[in-house]
Specification:
Blueprint (H helix, E strand, L loop, with lengths): L4 H9 L19 H10 L9 E5 L4 H14 L4 E4 L11 E3 L2 E2 L2 H14 L8 H15 L4 E5 L16 E4 L7 H4 L3 H8 L9 E3 L4 H13 L4 E3 L4 E8 L4 E7 L9 E5 L5 H18 L6 H9 L8 E4 L4 E4 L4 H14 L4 E6 L7 H8 L3 E6 L10 H8 L5 E3 L3 H11 L4 E6 L2 H15 L25
Parallel strand pairs: 1-5, 1-6, 2-5, 6-7, 7-8, 13-17, 14-15, 14-17, 15-16
Antiparallel strand pairs: 2-3, 3-4, 9-10, 10-11, 12-13
Length: about 475
């Protein structure tokens, strides 16, 4: 019997889910690529039906994936995009030509998978979802798929693909209890997606991380393109709606994608991400994909990637950002200082219980007026009182049990030269976007949120109307 969409989600969430519970060990026994390969073989190896671009990194990999997919789509390519986690609905993880996956199609694919899994013991949530994504793309006849790594790289379920180009975005400290507590160790895990002979593009990296990536690329005879060395960007101008910049390949090559570009994603770090995307796209162009500069310019100028330094309101500036480690929080603080000079911020802050909360708070303090510690509805969300215990007493703070109430409180507290920023995890951003959509009627959501993932209405929402 075919499942309904919600029944399909219920079944998937019944599998081992390391997005909801902390993974105990990061090793081949826990995350087994051979197990994934066997499942995909039983499904007819759908991941071999189309060429791919594979993207790993600590920060920016989702933005790079979204920009690459948008540029490919603007070039007339029938695209698939696989990313994680999602903001509001599971369907966002699996997109074809920019559209979230059809719910009944997902339910049908889960029904097929359900019959196979007894013969494939140990399959996890992410492994099953990866198989569904690859199968969905094959059945939709995509011509090219952009695939984002879920965790790490070397042992990630997506690492069964052999892409046309591999990409490593900015590396910093995250998931250190799994990937290692040095940039060299983290780079070794992320660099695990580099395949023999497959070109690889890297964002600018700290020397410790770059040394490891260069060693892996050399050992696997994978030509390495480094942004900052082989591609460079120069800032032109900005507004609250876009950034304009120029990129150059060094040395220039006939027909390369050097030239002027505009993106709607804010923050200087997004110019690094856009240049990484352009370097990867240029390699695909050299490999024969029909990519014109005009189409790529259109794709980058129209890319959508919500929740990344997203300005929801400008009256009392309301910003949401998915910063979830010290490095990304520092980038957020720098962007707030640049786009809203002189303002102090009330941070509606929540984080997962395995994150570097102290590092994030240290990075945000220079632009903070106060912190309102809260929690999302995700199972791994840290208790607000535990967050407050890390904060110290140098800035005012409050603990508030749920995000809708915390957001309302923040907007009331914000003075004339202040703003409100919800950050700390993608789940905080999701709750903030949903709450703001309920309050204002702004159409922030492409589709209705999943009841299982983000139950609606939120119990505190009535108090905000």
């Amino acid at each position: 019997m075919t499942l309904t969409y919600n029944e399909a989600l219920d079944y998937l969430y019944s599998l081992i889910d390391y997005e909801k519970t902390r993974i105990a060990r990061y090793d081949p026994k826990t995350l087994n690529l051979e197990r994934v390969a066997r499942l995909l073989e039983a499904l007819g190896n759908p991941h071999r039906c189309y060429p791919t671009l594979h993207i790993a990194g600590t920060k920016g990999k989702g933005s790079v994936a979204a920009m690459c997919e948008s540029a490919l789509r603007a070039s007339g390519v029938h695209t698939g995009l696989y990313t994680s986690p999602h903001l509001h609905t599971f369907r966002e993880r699996i997109r074809v030509d920019g559209w979230p996956a059809d719910p009944q199609a997902i339910a049908d694919l889960v029904s097929r998978l359900q019959h196979l899994l007894p013969d494939h013991p140990g399959i996890t949530w992410f492994e099953a979802v990866t198989a569904i994504a690859f199968l969905y793309f094959a059945e939709m006849g995509v011509e090219f798929a952009v695939v984002e790594v879920g965790l790490g790289g070397r042992l990630d379920a997506t690492n069964v693909i052999t892409p046309q180009v591999s990409v490593i975005t900015s590396l910093s400290y995250d998931h250190t209890y799994l990937l290692g507590d040095s940039l060299a160790q983290i780079a070794a895990e992320k660099g695990g997606i580099i395949k023999p002979g497959v070109p690889v593009v890297s964002a600018p990296q700290a020397e410790e991380a770059l040394t490891v990536l260069m060693e892996i690329a050399e050992a696997r005879q994978a030509p390495l393109t480094l942004v900052g060395r082989d591609w460079q960007w120069e800032f032109e101008e900005e507004s609250l709606d876009w950034q304009r910049f120029t990129v150059r390949r060094i040395p220039a090559q006939p027909g390369d994608l050097s030239g002027p570009y505009q993106i709607p994603l804010l923050g200087r770090h997004q110019l690094d991400n856009a240049t990484v995307a352009l370097a990867a796209l240029d390699l695909l162009r050299e490999a024969g994909l029909p990519l014109s500069q005009e189409a790529v310019q259109e794709g980058l100028s129209t890319v959508r990637w919500p929740g990344r330094f997203e300005v929801l309101d400008r009256t009392i500036p309301l910003v949401v950002d998915c910063a979830h480690n010290g490095d990304s929080a520092a980038k957020l603080a720098a962007a707030l200082a640049e786009w809203f000079p002189g303002r102090r911020w009330t941070f509606v802050f929540g984080a997962s219980n395995d994150k570097d909360v102290a590092g994030m708070l240290t990075a945000l303090r220079p632009v903070a007026a106060r912190f309102l510690f809260t929690r999302s509805r995700h199972p791994r969300a840290a208790d607000p009182t535990a967050l407050a215990a890390v904060a110290g007493d140098d800035l005012p703070f409050e603990t508030i049990a749920d995000l809708p109430t915390a957001l309302q409180r923040a907007l009331l507290l914000a003075g004339p030269e202040e703003g409100v920023c919800a950050t700390g995890s993608i789940f905080i951003v999701a709750d903030a976007r949903e709450t703001w959509s309920w309050l204002t009627g702004h159409l922030l959501l492409e589709v209705e949120p999943d009841v299982i993932w983000h139950p609606l209405p939120h119990p505190a929402a009535e108090s905000l109307v």
